């Protein structure tokens, strides 16, 4: 995966093109982050369709490095709520590790994301947030 490939991936994510995002993944990907597990196109679409019905989320890539087996990204994830996303709503959707956010609020989080690659496609994802 090149920086240009990743920029296309981030652009698809920022545009809410979930099928375009999933096209970057291997046949049986393993995404696990903050208590969420996603292994299919439908799960990815369901998770992000729900989340993005409350917030506008964008990825800003600051640093990128890759090899044949790994792509590493450092960037800022910006979340802006356009509806209240309460603790009760999050808990009801199995998202206990996510933070509530009120309409109009903005959260910015520095993230380090590792994408394990197989044949140029994303096979698994791991990420960490820096406080």
Automatic annotation (TrEMBL):
Pfam families in the cross-refs: SnoaL_2 (PF12680)
Domain SnoaL-like: 7-124
Protein name as annotated: Nuclear transport factor 2 family protein
Native source organism of the sequence: Alteraurantiacibacter aestuarii
Lineage, opening ranks: Bacteria, Pseudomonadati, Pseudomonadota, Alphaproteobacteria, Sphingomonadales
């Amino acid at each position: 995966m090149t920086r240009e490939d990743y920029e296309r991936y981030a652009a698809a994510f920022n545009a809410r093109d979930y099928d375009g995002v999933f096209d970057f993944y291997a046949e049986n990907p393993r995404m696990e982050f903050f208590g969420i597990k996603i292994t299919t196109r439908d799960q990815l679409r369901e998770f992000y369709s729900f989340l993005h019905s409350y917030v506008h989320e964008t990825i800003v890539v600051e640093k990128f490095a890759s090899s044949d087996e790994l792509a590493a990204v450092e960037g800022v994830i910006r979340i802006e709520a356009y509806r209240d996303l309460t603790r009760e709503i999050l808990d009801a959707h199995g998202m206990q590790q996510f933070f509530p956010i009120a309409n109009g609020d903005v959260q910015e989080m520095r993230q380090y994301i590792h994408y394990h690659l197989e044949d140029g496609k994303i096979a698994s994802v791991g990420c960490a947030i820096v406080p």
